[in-house]
Structure formats: structure tokens, C-alpha cells
Design a protein that fits this description.
binds adenosine-5'-triphosphate, 6-stranded parallel β-sheet, 220 residues, alpha/beta
Amino acid sequence: MSDGFKSNGAIYALFGGTFDPIHYGHLLPVAALAEEVGLQRITLLPNHVPPHRPQPEANAQQRLRMVELATENDPLFSVDERELHRTTPSYTIDTLEELRREQGSDTPMAFIIGQDSLLTLHYWHRWQSLLDYCHLLVCGRSGYADRLDTPELECWLDAHRTTDVNALEQQPNGLIYLAHTPLLDISATDIRQRHHNQMNCDDLLPKNVQQYIQQQGLYR
Ligand code: ATP
């Protein structure tokens, strides 16, 4: 915000992902987003991957541990393990429904995604209901289109889009904010591939996560 006034500490912000592994492409854009929007806390939500989808290479415990290591000294972040503890996979919308019940109807809630996820959001279970529970905060991602697939999706985006960060705490859900966060060309797929090929990943993820990957023999 131009006047430096940050008023959005009241927003309950969540960032879901597979985090196989967590990397700077996750951490740095969302930290910049917190600055831009004035978020005081971001809750990371590692997801349970359904058995019929391609499985992460690291198991749930290992993905959780990497998220904990990456965020352990940063008060901006906390971790919510609920999706990993479920015996059945759940959709994001189910978790948002549960969190909305816990937080009450007035708390502004926001779900953070990257541009690649925005582009495929219309394949998510009950995607049109997501905004009934939360705002969407979108971090840009290099190599992905700016525009959505169809005019109908663009219309949906325009109908919900705001450029005013203050609006995000003035209503509990329903808005989409496209952030001006740094573009980092980093993906977990690339990191796993680099590990397979024994290439250096020092600039791509925190050192303690790297050490854990080595220690556990992951991504070989
Ligand atoms: P993979 O390469 O295995 O598909 P990923 O690097 O995309 O993984 P995920 O855990 O699937 O990581 O992503 C979680 C969320 O983080 C998604 O909303 C995704 O869009 C976002 N994200 C991941 N990497 C970046 C990045 N470099 N910049 C911005 N957003 C990102």
C-alpha cells in the first residue's frame, strides 16, 4: 500500500500445496504478498493427494517435515496438518467449509494460489463455490498465461476482481486479487529432476530442506 498502512492483519490466509518439496517459488512470492496486502500470518496447508492421482515422491510425513523446516524461524508462517491427517482425501472446498465453520461467518478468509492454479481452477471440485468461503489471492508465475481460457472465465474473473487491498478485509469472501509479487521460475518438478540428475539446487530452496532431502534420500 502506498501510504505504508497495513490493515489486513485480520485476514485468515491459507496457502495450500503438495510441497514436494516446498521451495523459494512458494515462500518468497507469498512473503511479498503478505507485505503487499498486509497479511500478518499465512497458514500453509499441505494436501492429501488422492490415490488415483500421481503420487508425490515424498510421503505425507516428509512433505510436512519439509514445510516445518522451511518455516520454523519465520513468525509469518504456521502449518495446518488437517488434510494430511484425514484418512480420505478431501477437496479444498471441504477444508474451506470446515475452516469457515471454525472462523465464523465474519472473518475475512483468503486462499492463496499461483497463476498456474488460477488457470486450471475451473477443474477444481465445486470451483464456483470457492468464493462463497474465501477470497482468492493470486501470485504471478512465470511461463503461464495472463488470461483465462475462455471469455466466460474472464467474465467470472472480472466480476470478482478487486485491485483494492482494503476491500479484502471489508468483506469475508468473494474477491479475487491479482498480486504484483516477484516472478520466480522455480517448480518442485524441476527441483526433483535436478536432484535425480545430482544438480545443484542451492538457490531454489532453503538449506535445511536440502539437508533433509539428502538425509532422507529423497528424489534420487
Ligand atoms: P509441481 O512442480 O510438483 O507441480 P509446484 O512447484 O507447482 O509443484 P505445488 O505444491 O503444486 O508446487 O504448488 C502449490 C501452490 O504454489 C500452487 O497454487 C502453485 O500455483 C503455487 N506455486 C508453486 N510454485 C510457484 C512459483 N514459482 N510462483 C508462484 N506460485 C507458485
